Please model this.
Amino acid sequence: MTAQILPEHPFYQPGAEIKGRVSWTSEVAPRLAELRLFWFTKGKGDRDAETAEAATFDLPQSSDSREFRFRAPEFPPGFSGRLISLIWALELVLEPGGSVLTELVIGPEGRELQIDCPDWLEVPEPAKSSWFGFNR
Model:
């Protein structure tokens, strides 16, 4: 299977229209062809994901191309931090076949927020200690 997701732009403001085209070629016609707009987290701690919107393409063919249109959600904005990041993406799922993913940025002014770690979350450098006068 080969597939691609081609959004018009990689950067979106909340409420903006996300549109583009998906295409795929596989040996057999998929039973399901669905495009999902979703966010996921990566970094420290548990990983989360949530689908904001999905579009199912009717009567998918083995070689096909379809247009899509979504509305960029108002919340949550995409952000990147030292401990965790929230990333927006489009995922085309073909069954059978697999999936492909394209990351997007949805945030104020079409930019990803940069989140600095607050001082109270900083991990201090371990203090050098000595044992009987010798540094370890």
DSSP finds no helices and twelve strands in the chain. The radius of gyration is 21 Å. The CA atoms of residues 39 and 88 lie 4 Å apart. The mean pLDDT is 89.
